């Protein structure tokens, strides 16, 4: 066991890869090769290119080959916690990709392929914990993005094209060397906060559900309007002698 644990550069065979396929919660096929001690991209998995998800995280990969373009069905790609210094241009061909995690690698701005802006269906992009000193304005072309992780880099500014993405809900830029703290707050709070989130429209609710929702909303509004007087001490009429009731209960349990 000790020898296997310390082994580096584990060779992945097609059999190992096939045995690593799992069914994800939504019924997709996920090839999970995370934490396998892989140092080079296993060519054998190209025979399994019809999977929906590919997890190569927590390995020692330094490069992803152009053959990644064979995974045309891929919707979910996790490459975090490797030693990647660059990404292939071919990553832009994965048009079905909605999740891309390349956090905790050695990526620089220069080695981010411009083809990233071709991932038109991308919803979540994690670039945190890398060596990025700037963010390409071209990422503003990813109109479907909802979450972006840019934390723990060397960024001093965030392009407006990225901050103003129409569907962006979460932008994490913590621990970057912005010029001053107020600037950092501006970047962190650049996303408009939603006070009320409507998951369904009122016209889609039945009469009883709509009435119930309206009543709950009215109660909430009334609570917001109530401002308790700070000088008035709280009154507890039912707890004038709280210890007496506790004592009676204890006596009753003892008798049992």
From TrEMBL:
<keyword id="KW-0677">Repeat</keyword>
<dbReference type="InterPro" id="IPR003591">
    <property type="entry name" value="Leu-rich_rpt_typical-subtyp"/>
</dbReference>
<dbReference type="InterPro" id="IPR032675">
    <property type="entry name" value="LRR_dom_sf"/>
</dbReference>
<feature type="domain" description="Disease resistance R13L4/SHOC-2-like LRR">
    <location>
        <begin position="68"/>
        <end position="201"/>
    </location>
</feature>
<feature type="compositionally biased region" description="Low complexity">
    <location>
        <begin position="226"/>
        <end position="242"/>
    </location>
</feature>
<dbReference type="Pfam" id="PF23598">
    <property type="entry name" value="LRR_14"/>
</dbReference>
<dbReference type="InterPro" id="IPR050216">
    <property type="entry name" value="LRR_domain-containing"/>
</dbReference>
<feature type="region of interest" description="Disordered">
    <location>
        <begin position="224"/>
        <end position="256"/>
    </location>
</feature>
<protein>
    <submittedName>
        <fullName>LRC18 protein</fullName>
    </submittedName>
</protein>
<dbReference type="GO" id="GO:0005737">
    <property type="term" value="C:cytoplasm"/>
</dbReference>
<dbReference type="InterPro" id="IPR001611">
    <property type="entry name" value="Leu-rich_rpt"/>
</dbReference>
<keyword id="KW-0433">Leucine-rich repeat</keyword>
<dbReference type="InterPro" id="IPR055414">
    <property type="entry name" value="LRR_R13L4/SHOC2-like"/>
</dbReference>
């Amino acid at each position: 066991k000790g020898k296997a644990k310390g082994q580096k550069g584990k060779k992945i065979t097609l059999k190992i890869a096939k045995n690593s396929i799992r069914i994800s919660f939504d019924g997709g096929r996920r090839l999970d090769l995370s934490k396998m001690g892989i140092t080079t991209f296993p060519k054998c998995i190209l025979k399994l290119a019809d999977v929906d998800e590919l997890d190569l995280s927590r390995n020692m990969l330094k490069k992803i080959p152009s053959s990644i373009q064979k995974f045309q069905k891929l919707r979910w790609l996790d490459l975090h916690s490797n030693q990647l210094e660059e990404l292939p241009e071919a990553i832009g061909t994965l048009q079905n990709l909605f999740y891309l995690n390349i956090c905790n690698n050695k990526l620089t701005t220069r080695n981010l392929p411009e083809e990233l802006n071709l991932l038109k269906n991308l919803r979540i992009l994690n670039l945190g914990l890398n060596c990025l000193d700037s963010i390409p304005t071209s990422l503003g072309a990813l109109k479907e993005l909802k979450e972006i992780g840019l934390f723990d880099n060397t960024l001093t500014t965030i392009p407006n094209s990225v901050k103003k993405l129409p569907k962006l809900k979460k932008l994490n830029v913590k621990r970057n060397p912005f010029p001053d703290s107020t600037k950092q707050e501006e970047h962190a709070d650049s996303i408009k906060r939603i006070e009320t989130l409507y998951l369904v429209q009122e016209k889609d609710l039945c009469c009883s559900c709509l009435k119930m929702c309206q009543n709950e909303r009215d109660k909430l509004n009334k609570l917001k309007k109530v401002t308790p007087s700070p000088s008035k001490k709280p009154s507890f009429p039912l707890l004038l002698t709280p210890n007496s009731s506790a004592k009676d209960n204890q006596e009753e349990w003892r008798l049992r």
